[in-house]
Amino acid sequence: MATPQYTSLGGMEKSSFFYTKIALIVERLEDHESLPELQPTGSYDSDLAEEISETETVDLFMPIGVKDTDAAAAVKAGILLWNDDLKMSHEICQGLETIEGSYWHGIMHRREGDFSNAKHWFAKVVDHPVYQKMFDNAATLAEEIIPATDQLKFHSSAMQRVGKWSPEGFVDWCESAANDSVDKACEYFFKKLQIEEIRLLIDHSYQLSIGYGY
Q1: How far is 82 from 162, CA to CA, in rounded Å?
Q2: What's the total number of domains in the chain?
Q3: What is the reported pLDDT for 214?
Q4: Are 167 and 131 in contact (CB under 8 A)?
Q5: Assigned domain for 126 exists
Q6: Dist. CA 77–CA 95, nearest whole Å
Q7: Rounded to two decimals, what is the model's pTM?
Q8: Positions of the chain with pLDDT under 50
Q9: d(CA 199, CA 195)
Q10: Residue 117 located in a structural domain
Q11: C-alpha distances in angstroms, 192 versus 18, 63, 70?
Q12: Angle at 30 between CA 24 and CA 32, to 5 degrees
């Protein structure tokens, strides 16, 4: 009988941000033994939260030059959010009048448990390049979970029937997990989707920051 795999990060590929301080921070975040909670109760690593908060945004990118300061701030909001520091992430993203700022704002409120407010901010995003990547990766992330329960199969197939990533729908899924309405396999699937979304949006924001792509 297969052992349920609902705890570790598994075989996720490591991110690469050249030789910046961001790379070192992301490496520390990726070394966590478990996936971030959907609704955290405090910073995962308080020392890291303080280090990120006290570092000037442009210094996070050295020796790479920053070409878009708003996108760079979005990267900082993202790594703080990955470290479960919702308050500091919120202080940054609420001051960003960009699509990425609204996206991070929506994720922050979803993780905070303010689900209606999360949908408000996702409505401001409308569409985003990360959405297609999330949809493309979702089925694979579900298939990696063993054993697959009926609830997990239902949620995964429901997304495929919709045919696109729905941030509002994911808010509903996270709310159902908060209400203990899903099994452990589903909750783990949601956590995998959450970290995939955070990583993709950090990478997207980083590329915008240094003037690459998008």
Answers
A1: 28
A2: 1
A3: 53
A4: yes
A5: yes
A6: 11
A7: 0.91
A8: 1-14
A9: 6
A10: yes
A11: 25, 32, 27
A12: 120
- Return the C-alpha torsion angle 51, 93, 122, 136, nearest 10: -40
Selection from 83, 74, 67 nearest residue 26 by Cα: 83
DSSP β-bridge partners for residue 17:
19
Residue-wise pLDDT tens digits, 89-141: 999 999 999 999 999 999 999 999 999 999 999 999 989 999 999 999 999 99
- The residue range of the domain holding 86 is 21-210
Q: Which contacts qualify for 154-161: CB closer than 8 Å, 24 or more apart?
A: 155/182, 155/186, 155/189, 156/189, 159/135
The pLDDT value given to residue 33: 83
Give a yes or no: residue 16 inside a domain. Answer: no
Residue the block writes with tokens 């570092």: 55
Q: Is residue 197 part of a domain?
A: yes
122 to 29, 37, 72, 98, 129: CA distances (angstroms):
25, 20, 20, 12, 14
